[in-house]
User: What shape does this take?
Amino acid sequence: MRKVRVNQIGYKTAAEKYAVFADLDEDDRTFTVVEAETDKTVFEGTITKAKPYKVSGEYNSAGFFTEVTCPGKYKIVTAKGEESYVFEIGDKIYDKTLINVFRVLYLQRCGIKLPEAYAKEFAHEACHNSPARIYGTDEKLDVNGGWHDAGDYGRYIVSGAKAVMDLFIAYEANPALFNDAMNIPESGNGVPDILDEARYELEWMFKMQDSKTGGVYHKVTGERFPGFVMPQHETWEMVVSPVSNTATADFAAIMALSSTVYKDIDTGFANKCLGAAKKAFDYVVKHQDAPGFKNPDGIVTGEYPDDNCFDEIMWAAVELYKVTEDESYADVILSAYEKVTKWTILGWDDVGGYAAYSALTSDLLKKNHLDFWTRLKSDFINQVDDMVDEAKANPYFISRTDTFEWGSNMSIADNGMILWMANKISPNQDYVIYMKYNLDYIFGINAVDYCFVTGEGSNSPVHPHHRPSAALGKPMPGMLVGGPDNGLHDETAARLLADKAPAACYIDHLDSYSTNEICVYWNSPLIALLAMC
Assistant: This one.
């Protein structure tokens, strides 16, 4: 592990540029930026005073070199010879990374053949395209399609809705970045490929809605996790788990928003989205006191439990209100608001950040319910400012105190999105600066010196907990792994990382699903963050 941590992909020419140093000798206080090929020094800088960071077990300091703007490849060298990995400076340095990170969603598609023309070495035959059995019955349901959620082959509504929302926000942030030529089968159809990819998931989500009640089934998986095989070789019968409030409310929210996103692209599809959203919302409001989802007997695949559905209900009500202008949805928004406290989280379980962003960017809500809108803005901005204060106190400049949870890299990317949202709602240069630091962390400025995206940077994961990668013996490029998890939620992490500080609880090991698995809804906020930076 190197003592000089940099963004291993690089820095845009106008961006703030810095390195974080770990455990340097006390008299190693200066650094140079040198051209990678010639060793020519182009900048000399000083290193800040080192401070202890107990969460990583390091003494950390930093050095800034924002003045270096000439495109090229460089490295950092300290006075005593500590070196960084080579990085690049330029305005197009993230283009290839964005394509790879985005195309993971296509490569995770379920139910269809992935031909070599689009999937290369990750091509495979159609998978999971037989009707699935509805749990507790002999009834079969066509739920073909959607994305494989993670390193296994389950498909989940709550995580899928988050991922689609992130894609919509990415497109909103930088539509010019997403063209119609990103090498998926729909390329060239006149619709930006990011919206085509989102629609593939939405079309599957329709199939998960019960046609009679409007409720939405929580997930479709096998009863057990499969071995490390390609998806067409999974042998477990697919089972549709029962309806859940959180799945139904998330479905209502993302379908309502989709009716707006696609209205000028496909009116019929947009109307279908709105009708499905209304039906789902009616169901969840009537059943909002039902218990949260738990795996039914006999099923041990990912659960995604959540006992509080009021953040999901508020999000759905906001999206429906914006589309329909029906005041009955506003009544639900105001009621649910009193039961939600977290406004800066964009997870699969806490979606308050999406609800807040959608509400605070609504002129309709601001006009008709100014008192509520003002209170929510204050709640949101106060929590964002707390995030920034945490980041300012952190040697890696991220909003993190003493814990790294399962999927911490998703949270880091989400935090970048939140700061972009905050800057749109209440412009503040700190939000812009600290937003970018989250991307730098993911790409290498972290306590384990990894670029956490497979196939990117100089030191990236090669043994992700991902079945196609394991089956083929090579990591699928562009996957964001989970990152440090000091909960040590798998046996491999518990055995090999027990003596590590929280920020260092990461291992590039196939069996460490709590630190080295991948998820489509971890890639999606990274897509958005790349669009924002």
Remarks:
- The chain has a mean pLDDT of 97.
